[in-house]
Amino acid sequence: MAPLTLTQKLARKARLAGLLYLVIIVTGLGAELGLRGPLIDLGDADATAAAILAAPGQFRLAIAADLVMALCDAGLAILLYLIFRAMAPGLALSAMVFRLIQTVLIAASLMALLTAWLVLTRAGSIADAAALALVFLDLHAHGYDLGLVFFGVNSLIMGLLVWNSGVFARVFGAGIAVAGLVYLIGSGLRFLAPDLSSSFTPAYGLTILAETAFCLRLLVQRSPG
């Protein structure tokens, strides 16, 4: 069997990156929108506590999905660095570092979810457990947005890398860069103007569209010939 050429190796890395990206999208959206979101109302501590205690498996599955997402994100950060380092090593390294920081912050914020669960399941020994659990759930949400600040910077760099790559159409680079701006603005509103945060939520549809499109593009990467 003939050894793989550099182009063939690039194609393999791209397809693996696309697979990891797909898992990240499915588990991330599944955890936030499908599993955890329906249980949590940050404006109603008692209702949130009751919903979580009534569906413990669903709540724990959301944590597991986020953990899988974080593991895949770390792998994707490394793969994207390997794909783009020959084109722009400094930018590729910077993108990897910012994405890994995001991954660490999101993974660390899962401790807030676990703490909320422990508080609720030990409510007999904790005064006002529902309110305290809600604080940790809110802390997780803020930790997630803090991670997205670094991911926003990563996306801007990745947008530039994709735009200049000569391998992927420039529209994918533009889309990833726009997603980065959405992440930065959305996280900025969460911390600096929380009253405006909910009205900006529909803009995250752009991030889903851009990242899914790039994910699919990576999956269909082929070697010439």
Automatic annotation (TrEMBL):
Keyword Membrane (UniProt): yes
Transmembrane residue ranges: 61-84, 96-120, 146-164, 171-193, 199-220
Family matches, as InterPro entries: DUF4386 (IPR025495)
Domain of life: Bacteria
Keyword terms of this UniProt record: Membrane, Transmembrane, Transmembrane helix
Protein name, UniProt field: DUF4386 domain-containing protein
